[in-house]
Amino acid sequence: MQGKKFSFRSMIAENGVRSLYDGLPAGLLRQMFYATARFGLFETFRDWLHQIRGKTDFASRVAVGAITGGIAAYISCPMEVATVRMSNDVTLPPDQRRNYKNVVDTVRRISTEEGITAFWRGSAPFVQRAMLVGVFQVATLDQFKAMFVDWFGQTKDSIPNVFSASMASGLIYSLATMPLESSKNRMASQRPDPTTGKLLYTGTLQTIRSVTAKEGFLALYNGFLPYYIRCGGHTICMFVCVQMLRDVYDKLSV
Hints:
Elements lengths: L7 H8 L8 H30 L4 H18 L1 H13 L13 H11 L9 H30 L6 H31 L14 H12 L8 H30 L1
């Protein structure tokens, strides 16, 4: 819904309730690539850096989170493009829709019609966003947990403590990464100009400048509420589940 104010009501009215889940299969596959690579690489790089430096501090966690987040994002770019294409297709005018059937059809058609390189169209803002997500999640979660212990008397690393810190962390990184998310979506779903054959958006900064000049800077935050619900929900589920697994592991290790 580029250039239009987002609302669940109008989306459901125009395309039905099922449109809320357009791109879900591709999104699940994307998480399988992105999340597993991100956490696996983070643990590996963190331990490797610890062997070299002899310690693991705040700065090293931030650096490792940014690097591994970027690598994981680049690996999962094909599924990200498929997710964006499937989700945005129903928002286009009928004569401009690609009418993808499913995730397999989406991947097949993109590779045959546009070439393999199309899967990495918009990879720069996706990777940059992922690096920021790694930085802001790692850097802010522990800080908020400590702050909430002092402010509200929460027990450190308890489920309420992790839950509230995750909500705050999710808000911070949603605000920081929404412009990159908007840029990535516009770059991934665009069509070449029918006359010149050129793409409207060619890079992250160019996309942000172009959208800001034509629609205003706040246009980059269109759809922020569902984006925060997604990011906050993902952050809460991720960190709460990790904490629950750690608690179980600690009990079994006793």
